[in-house]
Design goal:
- It is a single chain.
- Helices cover about 40% and strands about 15% of the residues.
- A two-stranded antiparallel sheet has the order 1-2.
- β1 and β2 form a beta hairpin.
Length: about 90
């Protein structure tokens, strides 16, 4: 990780999981729908509610975009985090 200064380092160290991709970078759609842990790729990433979600392919990202609340809530629950409530 690269930081602009000590304030950014402090913010990161206070909650490093906040800056990491959900499910360790594995595709949440494949994990939740197929029980498969498949690494996501940056080119298929989505930024939602201040979190990064990575997907293995365009189809998986499209499925997420059709129902982002379901997948984000379930992925955050699976990761042991609290989802953002709007």
């Amino acid at each position: 990780y690269l930081f602009l200064g000590p304030t950014e380092v402090k913010n990161f160290l206070a909650d490093p999981d906040k800056y990491a991709p959900v499910l360790g970078g594995n595709d949440p759609v494949l994990a939740l729908d197929n029980q498969q842990m498949v690494p996501g790729r940056r080119e298929f990433g989505v930024y939602l509610d201040n979190r990064v979600y990575l997907f293995a392919n365009e189809g998986s990202r499209r499925n997420f975009e059709q129902n982002p609340q379901r997948y984000s809530a379930d992925a955050m629950q699976a990761a042991g985090a609290q989802p953002v409530v709007r």
